[in-house]
Amino acid sequence: KYPVKTIYLAILILITLLVTFAAIWVGFYLARQMTKPLEDLALAVSEVGSGNLDVAINTEGDDEIATVSAAFNKMTTDLRENRDRLQSTYGTLQTTNDELSEKRRYLEAILANVSAGVCSISADSVVTTMNKSAANLLNLRSELAIGQTLSALLTGPLEELHQTIAQVREAGGKETIFKYLNLTPAEGRPLSLLVTITPLFDGRTYLGLVLVLDDISHLIKAQREVAWREVARRIAHEIKNPLTPIKLSAQRLQKRYLDKLDNDEVFKECTDTIIREVDGIKDMVNEFSQFARFPMANPVPNELNEVIAEVVSLHRQADRGIHFEFLPDAAMPTFSFDRDQIKRVLMNLVDNAV
């Protein structure tokens, strides 16, 4: 009935629908444009959370989202740079730590194998390190001594060492102190120690002490041996002086009285023995004075029966109140030995028996 009106109404409805769809599409488009950067930002935050600091967000535009995105990119850049610096620092620290560990093991190996005893003592008098040599010298166990105070550790025979350390601490000086101590541990041999005490300072701050113990017992023993050798040389020289006159007197007695006594065998045997023994003593004294030791053995083929007979003969003359009987062994072979030294041995044996 109204065709024109119907057409207008259809066109109006169509236009309305087109405008509605266009508005909806524009709304979705605008919403997409606004939420896309936020989605990218959320995804980037998730990547950073998982450890990926190389992520970056597009910062086109001059709105608030672009500002936030730029700030986020700057944050990830700073984090990446800090991570790189931390990794570099960690690598340097790891290398330094490895070097320190190697030096520590090297020092521990030195301390473990050095002959001198080494201890370190903290400022509050607690033992912090003790090597094996120090533990052996003080008759302690290093694993038990570390962590103990000196007052609890150095007791009894070691009290003198504790007093010496305490005196150095009270003096407060920075110079190294040397002291000789004679210690007699409860178990073990007496010790002659050279104690070196070195205070440790960091500027004016007192850090503790380093204690070095050197066993000089063998040095003192060597000095005593040298002194005794010198004494032995002088004594040997004094013994040697009268030997020549004794020998000459025995020889003169033989020349002057042997013919007058009708070659008396006893007289000749006695004077020969004096001359022979004087020569033997002189040889022994010469070697003793030269080397400060007993003569070296000089084995040559000899008859043992003859040596025993000489010794028995001497004692028969010297100890007439004692009966000596010697039964030589005819089967005794000739063999090599030092005649003078064996003779001295037999003389000592018979003297002890007499």
Tell me about this structure:
It is a single chain. The protein has 354 residues and is of the alpha+beta class. It has helices at 3-49, 64-113, 132-137, 142-145, 150-153, 159-171, 217-240, 243-257, 265-291, 304-318, 339-353; strands spanning 117-122, 127-130, 177-183, 191-202, 205-215, 300-302, 335-337. It folds into 3 domains: 3-85, no CATH class; 115-215, PAS domain (Beta-Lactamase), CATH 3.30.450.20; 221-353, no CATH class. Helices cover 62% and strands 13% of the residues. The strands form 2 sheets. Strands 2-1-5-4-3 form a 5-stranded antiparallel beta sheet, with helices on both faces. Strands 6-7 form a two-stranded antiparallel ribbon. A hairpin with a 4-residue loop joins strand 1 and strand 2 (127-130). Helix 7 (217-240) runs antiparallel to helix 9 (265-291) and helix 8 packs antiparallel against helix 9 (265-291). It is rod-shaped and about 200 Å long. The chain starts with a helix and ends with a helix.
